[in-house]
Design brief:
It is an enzyme of class 2 (transferase). The chain is of the alpha+beta class. Helices cover about 35% and strands about 15% of the residues.
Length: about 375
C-alpha cells in the first residue's frame, strides 16, 4: 500500500516522526482501514509504556477509519483499551497507547511488534496445507484467545489466517539490523516467519501466535454498529441471513479455518451463477450440503431477509437440488491425513459449523475438544 494507492491513508515515509516520539522505519503491512509501520521510540532510554523494546508496530488508521472510531462505528480502540484494563493475554495484541496526529486527521495505535501471518505461511506450502501438529498448535492458541475475548464481552468477527501473526523474540539490535536490509520502506515487509511448515512436533510446540486486528470487533451485547462481518468464505449463515448476531460467528470461522489449514482448501467456496443464483444462494446451499442440516423455521423466522432466499416451505428459491457430503468425507478426498486425524478434526469442524448458532460450542468448550490434545509423534 503506497500513498498513491489510497489517498485516505497517511503517506508515511522512513524517518517521519509522529507525535514527536515515534520514528517510522518501514511498512509492515496494510489492510482496508490502515497501514502498519515498524517504528522506534525516540530517546535511547525511553520505552513505550509496558514495552520491553524500543520498537513498536504503529497502526495508522485511515481518515475514514478515524472518523468511524470517533463516531463509535469502529470499536477497535475501545476494545483494545478494555483488554488493556483487564489484563494482558498472550494470544492478543498489546495496546501501549493511542494518539491522534497529522492535525488530528488520523488515529494511531502503538502495539507490540509481531511477525508475519499464518495465511502467508500456509500459502507458502506446495499443497497449501499445514502439518496437523502445526495447525493444532496454532489453532489451540487462537481458540484460547477467542475465549478470552468472548469472556470480555467482545466478538472478533474477522478471524482469518491473515489476522493470526507469529510472535517473534528479537533484541533491539536484531530488529535494527533487519530493518536496515529493507530497500523499499513503503512496501509491505513483515518480519519473516521464524518457523518452517515442515518443522517437527517439538519445534511446532514452540510456535506462539497472536490473534490481531480488532478493527471489526463488536460488543457481544447490543446492536452491531455495522452490517457486514467476516471474510467472504468464513461467513456464518446468520451473517448472510442478517440475524442472530452473537459470539457464535467466531466459532463458525474457527471451524472453517481448521479445515482450511489441514487440507489447503476453503471449506466453502461459493460461486455466482449469474442469472440462475447468487453467491449467497450458493453459500447457503453449500452450508446445508456440508453440514447435512436444513434451516429450521425458527431460524428463518428471525431473518429479515428470509424471503430473498427461501420459499414458504424453507426451500432455497434458486437452488433446486442439494448434494450432501459429510465433512469427514470431504477431508478424506484430499488424501493428506490419516483416518484418526480426520475423525477428530472433522468432528471439531462439524461441531463449529452448525446452522443454528445456539448449537455451536462456546470457545471455552471448544478448547476442550480432543483434537487439540491429540498427541503428535
Amino acid at each position: 500500500m503506497r500513498v498513491e494507492d489510497g489517498p485516505d491513508f497517511y503517506p508515511g515515509a522512513r524517518g517521519d516522526v509522529l507525535d514527536g516520539r515515534y520514528e517510522l522505519c518501514h511498512q509492515l503491512g496494510h489492510g482496508v482501514y490502515s497501514t502498519t509501520w515498524l517504528a522506534k521510540r525516540r530517546g535511547s532510554t525511553q520505552q513505550a509504556s509496558g514495552s520491553t523494546t524500543q520498537y513498536v508496530a504503529l497502526k495508522l488508521l485511515s481518515r475514514d477509519a478515524t472518523n468511524d472510531v470517533r463516531g463509535r462505528i469502529m470499536l477497535e480502540v475501545d476494545a483494545m483499551k478494555r483488554l488493556r484494563e483487564r489484563g494482558p493475554h498472550a494470544g492478543l495484541p498489546v495496546l501501549y497507547e493511542d494518539f491522534a496526529f497529522d492535525q488530528s486527521a488520523h488515529i494511531c495505535l502503538a502495539l507490540n511488534f509481531l511477525g508475519s501471518d499464518v495465511g502467508s505461511f500456509r500459502r507458502s506450502v506446495t499443497n497449501k496445507a499445514l502439518a496437523p501438529h502445526v495447525a493444532r498448535t496454532i489453532m489451540r492458541q487462537v481458540v484460547d484467545a477467542v475465549a478470552h475475548l468472548h469472556a470480555q464481552g467482545m466478538v472478533h468477527t474477522d478471524i482469518k489466517p491473515d489476522n493470526i501473526l507469529f510472535q517473534v523474540d528479537l533484541t533491539d539490535e536484531e530488529i535494527a539490523a533487519w530493518d536496515a536490509t529493507i530497500e523499499d520502506p513503503t512496501a509491505d515487509s513483515p518480519y519473516p516467519c521464524p518457523y518452517t511448515p515442515d518443522c517437527s512436533p517439538e519445534e511446532a510446540a514452540k510456535i506462539k501466535v497472536v490473534l490481531v486486528d480488532l478493527g471489526q470487533c463488536q460488543w457481544a451485547e447490543g446492536k452491531p454498529t455495522v452490517s457486514q462481518f467476516s471474510a467472504f468464505s468464513l461467513r456464518a449463515p446468520e451473517i448472510i441471513l442478517k440475524s442472530d448476531f452473537s459470539p457464535a460467528i467466531d466459532i463458525w470461522a474457527i471451524g472453517c479455518i481448521v479445515f482450511e489449514m489441514l487440507v489447503g482448501r476453503w471449506l466453502f467456496h461459493p460461486v455466482d451463477g449469474e442469472d440462475d443464483w447468487s453467491v449467497e444462494d450458493d453459500h447457503l446451499a453449500k452450508m446445508m450440503e456440508l453440514t447435512g442440516e436444513t434451516f429450521s423455521a425458527e431460524i428463518l423466522a428471525r431473518s429479515p431477509v428470509r424471503d430473498e432466499y427461501f420459499d414458504t416451505q424453507g426451500n432455497l428459491l434458486r437452488v433446486d437440488e442439494l448434494y450432501f457430503v459429510k465433512i469427514q468425507d470431504a477431508m478424506s478426498n484430499y488424501k493428506l491425513l490419516d483416518q484418526d486425524e480426520i475423525a477428530l478434526a472433522a468432528d471439531l469442524v462439524s461441531r463449529c459449523c452448525r446452522l443454528d448458532p445456539a448449537a455451536r460450542p462456546s470457545a471455552a468448550e471448544l478448547a476442550l475438544h480432543p483434537w487439540f490434545s491429540k498427541t503428535d509423534q
